[in-house]
Amino acid sequence: MNKAVKLVAVGAAFLFGATFAGNVTVQADSPRYDMVDVSNHNGQMTTPEFIDMRDAYGVKAVTTKISEGTTYHDWTAAGNIRAAQEAGLYINGYHYLRATTVAGAIAEADYAVAMAQADGLPVGAVLVADVEEPAQMAMGANMQAVVTAFENEVQIKGGFRTTAYTMGSHLEVTPYGEKSWIASYPFTPTSTQNWYATEHGWQFDSKATFRMSLGVFDVNQLYDNFFTADQAVIKKNPGDGATVWSKGGVWYTDKSFKHKANGIKKHMGSYWSFAYGKLIKSNWTNSWGMYYWSDGDGKLVQGKGTWKGYTWDFGTDGTYYVKNATPKSLNKLVEQLNK
Question: Where is the secretion signal located (predicted)?
Answer without folding.
Answer: 1-21
